[in-house]
Amino acid sequence: MSVAEEFEVANAEYAASFSRGDLLLPLKRKVAIVACMDARLDSARALGLEEGDAYVIRNAGGRAADALRSIIISQQLLGTREIVIVHHTDCRMLTFTDEMIRGKLRSDLGQNADYIAFLPFGDFQQSVLDDIKWLKESLLVLDVPITGFLYDVGTGKIVRVEDNV
Amino acid sequence: MSVAEEFEVANAEYAASFSRGDLLLPLKRKVAIVACMDARLDSARALGLEEGDAYVIRNAGGRAADALRSIIISQQLLGTREIVIVHHTDCRMLTFTDEMIRGKLRSDLGQNADYIAFLPFGDFQQSVLDDIKWLKESLLVLDVPITGFLYDVGTGKIVRVEDNV
């Protein structure tokens, strides 16, 4: 059975007890979450989200720059007025560089990916602060409250990351 | 209380019963999911995901082109070997055009976003097929099984989207 087929089986059970078919946009909580795609992070369970609560944007590292298109759509068309960033401990974004992954694509696939910024980082608290700053400076992003959290994959806890400088 | 503070309260409860701190990469299920950010879709519950199961990439519309950076990282560095795309009914990506949102950013914020492709679409089954085709043709993406689903926000059900042409 492929993973896609396993998803179909699991979904049949989910749909059998589904009771949120009345959910309408706009949202109760006007928030866009930007979180890492990491398999160990279940952003809904970890943040107490119910269906209908929040737009959830996820990518490698939970990087703001790569979420810009979705953030703009969520603010301009869907009415979000708060942003929450979630990065996490033991993130694989700390283990490579642009040069490394571009070199691997060149040698394994014969392809040039030098035009792609893979956005790795060197510190998972600094990356949260960098992304808050990046969003605050972006002229395409509304001036809304932005909170950054670091999720601990070992304990399931989030801790707020604050700039104490 | 801001939404971020509500998340902290909910997370304290989650962390109190957290028992998955032993999760190690690589994954049990070597899959990357590309799903829409829509608030009504809880990708983990709808697909039966446990913490540690799958990389979850989410953006406005669940568009493959905007997930490329994350898909490459998941394949080249994290070992995913299957892709599952999830778009959904009543998607807001059907309600605007690039020209509309660029015009709104120009008039409301005085900013030029003409360089951003917002990737709206006209049909949420065709968008799944388009994204499968786009990934299959991308030379930076490995030749792996790709399955596309349409999630029904009214019933909670996923239905496989297949190219019957």
From TrEMBL, chains A, B:
Record-linked InterPro entries: Carbonic_anhydrase, Carbonic_anhydrase_sf
Protein origin, superkingdom: Eukaryota
Cofactor(s) named in the record: Zn(2+)
This enzyme's EC code(s): 4.2.1.1
UniProt KW Iron keyword: no
Residues annotated to bind Zn(2+): C36, D38, H88, C91
Chemical reaction(s) catalysed: hydrogencarbonate + H(+) = CO2 + H2O
One of the Pfam families matching this protein, by short name: Pro_CA
Xref: CDD domains: beta_CA_cladeD (cd03379)
Cofactor note text: Binds 1 zinc ion per subunit.
Molecular function terms from GO: carbonate dehydratase activity; zinc ion binding
Sorted UniProt keywords: Lyase, Metal-binding, Zinc
Family: Belongs to the beta-class carbonic anhydrase family.
Chain's role: Reversible hydration of carbon dioxide.
Protein name as annotated: Carbonic anhydrase
Organism: Aspergillus bertholletiae
